[in-house]
Write a structure and sequence with these properties.
10 helices; single chain; alpha+beta; 434 residues; four-stranded antiparallel β-sheet; Outer membrane efflux proteins (OEP)
Length: 434
């Protein structure tokens, strides 16, 4: 019975122990480095390069030889030679086309991997910013709770001094209770954002849970830490960045390479109609028993055949399909380019708007809202304002602070979206504006 209880206790304790993870705080740059080093999906994608390289090697192959034998058995073998030798098929105009097709596919796989790498970095950056933003909102709510606690203390003192009715205390306590729900919800949002951050990194390390090093956007001027330009940076016109950006987009480069692959595939398929040559050679002999002269005779033989003559089948369906694939690749390229212009335009407008909104918070709302809440608190403490007025002012102030946090997060995310569309993680606004 005692052993049974011990086993049950171990089973109850062990799952909790296995579920615990070490939380490690990392910077954005560290998160990017970890993701590139350990992201499972990215590691799997890198294997496509090895496969494509092996395909290039295989495409350069020579055909394996065949061993041939020919023996006459019985009376028919008298005076006739027996033979054993090799035959080798020589491909005409196929090997080079096959190799160029494989090399084109290898280049395509490398471009796909570059796109996967870039997209991974953008995902990590976005998840990092969203995690910091949720923690910032939690900080805002915690600050609001502190303010309400201070307000509750003031209200209690004024009730004791018979300056206000007890309803002020009750009203403040209700506001605090409502705030607790918001805080609990936001704590859950922080955990969810942390798991999304780890999902983006997707490292094969079950013992570590990564957290953003930054707990808030407290240092508003440190945009470099989040790899973003300062809000006051000058933005070049859309036309000034469109052409250069379109040249650098991975999806457009990939679409171009797909056309090249389709064209080289047409060449390879067309070359299948070219006949091949088969060379033969070997050793021939007649045994003494089968020889008309009564003695053993030996020698050699050589021969050549033309094979794969496109007489009954000329590979017309395969060639037609290859031509269709070129047309499809060209249409896909046009579609990708057209969509890229619209996506880039949309991302550009969003970033410009986010920049304007953030600067408006910096220039007007934040300073004015701080002055407003300071005056409101002072007036309530001196009996010049009601509690209702102060609570309304406090809610307005915290709403502005939360809005500013959302504006910051939106600014960072719009910048990341803009980078996605220009397909450059180090886009320099100053250089582009020159």
């Amino acid at each position: 019975m005692k052993k049974f209880l011990i086993i049950i206790l171990i089973l109850l304790i062990c799952p909790a122990g296995f579920a615990q993870k070490t939380v490690e705080k990392i910077s954005l740059q560290e998160a990017l480095d970890i993701a590139l080093e350990n992201n499972i999906d990215y590691q799997a994608s890198k294997m496509n390069i090895d496969k494509a390289i092996n395909t290039v090697k295989a495409s350069n192959r020579l055909q394996n030889p065949e061993i041939n034998t020919f023996f006459n058995i019985g009376e028919i073998g008298k005076g006739e030679p027996q033979a054993a030798g090799l035959s080798e098929k020589i491909e005409i105009a196929k090997r080079d086309a096959r190799k160029k097709l494989a090399q084109s596919n290898l280049k395509l796989e490398k471009q796909n991997l570059d796109y996967v790498k870039f997209d991974l970095k953008m995902d990590v950056r976005e998840a990092y910013v969203n995690l910091v933003a949720t923690k910032e909102i939690l900080n805002v709510l915690e600050q609001r709770r502190k303010l309400l606690n201070d307000l509750l203390a003031i209200a209690k003192k004024r009730v004791q001094a018979d300056e206000v009715e007890e309803i002020d205390v009750i009203q403040t306590e209700i506001a605090l209770d409502q705030l607790v729900i918001q805080v609990n919800t936001q704590k859950a949002n922080v955990k969810s954002a942390m798991y999304n951050f780890n999902k983006a990194i997707n490292a094969n390390n079950t013992g570590i849970l990564y957290d953003a090093e930054d707990d808030n956007f407290s240092d508003k001027d440190d945009f470099i830490a989040l790899l973003s330009p300062k809000p006051l940076a000058k933005i070049p016109s859309f036309e000034a960045i469109k052409e250069s950006s379109l040249k650098n987009r991975y999806d457009i480069k990939i679409a171009e390479q797909q056309i090249d692959v389709a064209k080289k595939n047409l060449v390879y398929v067309s070359r299948q109609r070219v006949p091949d040559i088969e060379l033969q050679g070997g050793y021939s002999f007649i045994t003494r028993a089968m020889s008309d002269s009564g003695r053993a005779v030996s020698g050699a033989f050589a021969g050549a055949n033309i094979v794969n003559i496109p007489l009954f089948y000329a590979y017309k369906p395969e060639i037609q399909n290859a031509k269709t694939e070129i047309t499809q690749a060209e249409l896909h390229y046009m579609s990708v380019k057209n969509k890229a212009v619209n996506d880039l335009n949309s991302a550009y407008e969003k970033f410009v708007t986010a920049k304007i909104n953030l600067n408006y918070y910096n220039d007007n709302l934040i300073k004015n809202s701080k002055d407003m809440i300071r005056v409101a608190q002072k007036n309530y403490a001196n009996g010049k304002a009601s509690l209702t007025t102060l609570i309304v002012m406090e809610q307005s102030y915290r709403s502005i602070v939360a809005g500013y946090t959302y504006a910051l997060a939106d600014y960072y995310n719009c910048w990341i979206e803009f980078l996605r569309e220009v397909n450059s993680e180090n886009f320099d606004l100053d250089e582009e504006s020159i």
